[in-house]
Amino acid sequence: MKHISQPAKKRLITLAQLLQQYPDPKITSVKIAQMTGWTEATIRRDISLLELHSGISNGYETKQLQKAITQKLGIGQQETQNKLCIVGLARLGESMLDQTLFEGTGFLLTAGFDTNQNRLDLIKSPIPLFPTLDLETKIRSLKIQYAILAVSDEKAQFMCDRLISCGIKGILNYTNTILKVSPQVRLLNCGPGFMLTNLL
Amino acid sequence: MKHISQPAKKRLITLAQLLQQYPDPKITSVKIAQMTGWTEATIRRDISLLELHSGISNGYETKQLQKAITQKLGIGQQETQNKLCIVGLARLGESMLDQTLFEGTGFLLTAGFDTNQNRLDLIKSPIPLFPTLDLETKIRSLKIQYAILAVSDEKAQFMCDRLISCGIKGILNYTNTILKVSPQVRLLNCGPGFMLTNLL
DNA sequence: CGCTGTGAACGAATTCACAGCA
DNA sequence: TGCTGTGAATTCGTTCACAGCG
Questions:
Q1: Nearest residue to B14 (alpha-carbon basis) of A153, A197, A200, A187
Q2: B105 touches chain A (CB under 8 A)
């Protein structure tokens, strides 16, 4: 099996999501290019990494392609799903407390944490919520491997350290703090302050 | 002046922010590498793009380096600041309605928009808020060039189109919708669903 | 023909490796 | 010796260009 690069992986996941709502039973690289703005060549190269060989000279079957992507990348099916939690449930964290946001990504939202017991009582959510006190125990017992960090900037590094000490694999940092993480932890800065620097 | 690539630019901005809170008056590429996880070589290359030539064999002066970065990249000073607005002020949008999040990024938060007049009345914010009705007029009159999109998924594409029709230059998409934009508009998907795909 | 799949060319960014300064 | 700055090598991702299938 060929190696699929990060950018290619990302495009393929997006593509799978697009195909889900694509009306025609057939699709070509040209049409995908029009929808996404990627070049034809890139799209064909990406798809060729799946080693389907089913599209020869005829475009791809929408549903088949979609299925191939999710299968090859191992997203969607329960067994492979990576468990995810949200740490910090103020406005920002609470706004992400919704499994539908993660459908088709390969992640399963499994828990929410907040220090404020009052807030935990107030929020009604189908996802179980816990006080931050239980962070370590719950992360280990529920086998959570990924976290969305949405606490206040002051607590960010501290909570980050606690998450790492639980052996978490990846963190989406929605705070505006530059976090120091050990190299085996994948960290992505998602806060607006960080993302804007990609626009300049 | 040498060309500074996107990735390098991003690292330099992060570095400038780090330097702001760095205690020692001197710093070396090794120390930066430890803090950030980047390689020494990359750091030295990045800094060399600034054409300082002040660090020969001795490490860099913290403050001087920081100043050089912000100056060279033209961030921080009022004249160069790019104006930014937030569209959609529900929990997510409201949580970003805070200029301090954007300090040192070269962006100035200038307006917030929401369809719900009631919400506009309720939120107290030093940043001026407007009904979505006035989106086009205000964006043009205030010369806003960048937007944070934080509306509900259903309205995302519609609002995106309206923003583009105003000639906006870049959009941070915090919704979970895959947006179709014209190629001259820079689009960054920041929603957790999108960001997670970078962790896989 | 129109479309895929892919070797080869290309371009961009990172890393190596070392000369040179204090 | 410890550090920077930078040509050269390398790696990685994208794009070209075309052979080959239906």
A1: A197
A2: yes
Report the chain A residue with the minimal C-alpha distance to residue B17. A178
Return d(Cα A68, Cα A55) in angstroms, integer.
12
pLDDT at B79: 67
B183 touches chain A (CB under 8 A): yes
Is A181 within 8 Å of B37 when comparing Cβ atoms? yes
Q: Say what the pTM is.
A: 0.90
| % chain A with pLDDT above 90 | 82
Q: List all residues 6 or more positions away from B179 whose beta carbon is below 8 Å from its beta carbon.
A: B149, B156, B157, B160, B171, B173, B187, B189
Cβ contacts of A107 on chain B, cutoff 8 Å? 196
Q: Does A77 touch chain B (CB under 8 A)?
A: no
Report CA torsion sign: B120, B115, B99, A97: positive
d(CA A24, CA B32): 52
Give me the pLDDT at residue B34, please: 92
pLDDT tier for residue A161 given thresholds of 50, 70 and 90: very high
Stretches in chain B below the pLDDT threshold 70: 78-79
Question: How many CB pairs (< 8 A) connect A and B?
Answer: 115
Task: State residue B98's pLDDT score.
Answer: 95
pLDDT of A198 > 90? The answer is no
Query: Between B35, B169, B190, which is nearest A180 by CB?
Result: B35
Residue B135, number of CB atoms within 10 A of its CB: 22
Mean pLDDT of A176-192: 90
Contact A104, A76 (CB under 8 A): yes
Q: How many CB atoms lie within 10 A of CB A181?
A: 18
- B196 and A84 Cβ atoms separated by less than 8 Å: yes
Collapsed DSSP state (helix, strand, coil) of residue B181: coil
Distances (CA, A) of B190 to A188, B52, B149, B194: 10, 34, 10, 6
Burial class (CB in 10 A: 0-12, 13-18, 19+), B185: middle
Per-residue pLDDT reduced to its tens digit, B92-117: 999 999 999 998 888 999 999 999 99
- The token duo for B77 is 């000073």
